[in-house]
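Dear colleague,

Following up on yesterday's call, I've attached the two folding results inline so they're easy to grep. Please treat them as preliminary; we haven't cross-checked anything against experimental data yet. The first protein's sequence and structure tokens come first.
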Amino acid sequence: MIASILSILVCAYGLAGIHYEHDLHLKINAGFLLVCFVLSLIATCLLLDYSTTNSSLQPIIRKSMRDLISNSQHDYDAKILRQLQEAIGCCGADGPNDYTHLLKPLPSECRDTVTGNAFFHGCVEELTWFFEFKSMGIGFLGMSLGMFNVSI
């Protein structure tokens, strides 16, 4: 949202510089475009850093999943856990052993509906792979838009 507003303001300032034919305004606009490109680059790097394998997001997901498993006797936590494991096709934070370590029974959502085998990968890995794939597309889009703004 902020990036969009900033982009609109930079474009409006550039159009005003073109309309009034002021060299100073056009140079300031070029500086603004450079700043927007650098901010886009920084935002893309942060997005890719915090949403990939071995990022700082993984411990947060791991703690959240273990909390949900520990509190699975409550309806709200059990519902979130069921939906998450069923939709993603994962089991526990790091695999089915999380249930064993917490002395909880392995739920049916942790099993493949066809074979009945427990899912091998935990939700931390599956969610990280999901975020990594999505963030690559968003990062590519951000970098492309930044390059497009600078090149025009």
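Below is the second protein, in the same order (sequence, then structure):
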Amino acid sequence: MASFTSLNRNNVKFRIFFAILTVTVKLPKARSLRCNICESTQSWETCNANMTTIECPTVTDATCVKYSYEMTDTNSDKQQRMFARGCLPQYQCSSSLLPACADLEKSGSKIKATCHVSCCGEDLCNSQAKYNSSVLFLMAMFFVHVFVKCLL
């Protein structure tokens, strides 16, 4: 027959194990940011037609990006354009740090480059342009104000 203290120790071990198991199961699962991804040298419409969704690598500062660039060779006036969506670390979210744009803007080259970068941190936020909810609220309030004024 087992002694009282050994049963008590086993009971404590079981309770600790059960508590750890419960906390582990109830912890929220780490979820990656989901972003749209596409690339086109023609237009946003072509990019949109080939758009898919990916999960960004699990990093704390992941962000969705939408960027375009146009470069012109000043000697030949040849132009190259790129339209793209994807995900990247937050610190690269500027035209000078985004690798695709930074390579274009090297000093001393005979290439004129223009790069536009837009980043956001919500799932699928780098799709087509959408209005911010606060902008929509302000527009609605403006129309209500105009409507009320017309009634008075």
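For the second protein, one point worth flagging: DSSP finds four helices and five strands in the chain.

Best wishes,
A.L.
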